[in-house]
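Sanity check

After download, print the first record. It should look like this:
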Amino acid sequence: MEQDIDRILIHRDQLAVRVRELGAEIAQSYDDRDTRLTLVTILSGAIIFLADLIRELPMKMHIGLITVSSYRGATTGSLEPQLLRELDHDVSGRDVLVIDDILDTGKTLRLVHRILADQGPRSIKTAVLLRKTAKAPADVRVDFVGFDIADEFVVGYGLDYDNHYRNYPHIAVLKPELY
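Expected structure tokens:
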């Protein structure tokens, strides 16, 4: 994989530190409530972020999984999000924290928020590992952000290109000739 990487944007050590910080921020934001927390994770890109983040959350929680695809096949452009797997948990009356890998166009998060809102949760907050500041729409609220990045196509730490590179331990930019 190393030969395909143009440059590392965020090193795995930086990821570990920031995920620990996010865990503390999230725990503090739910600390003063009778929390019935459900983490709704958007698969597949957020799975590694979720695995590391939940180990930093010292509270009881449920985990719900939903699969939405906005990048299908060998593409770097976001398509209309397609719901591939419905949420496997009832979130009515619960505090929901949506976990996603990246906020880009906002289409995926809009869809997921709409689906969740129809179920009547007590609250909905969102945590993303990455936010592309140049593209992130103002109407998509994100409560917790790991890193703000430029508008570059990134892989690693769960993010993929054509279902490859999810296991790369850093956030990296691929060599342009590969996509």
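If your output differs, re-run the checksum step. Summary of this record's structure: The radius of gyration is 16 Å.
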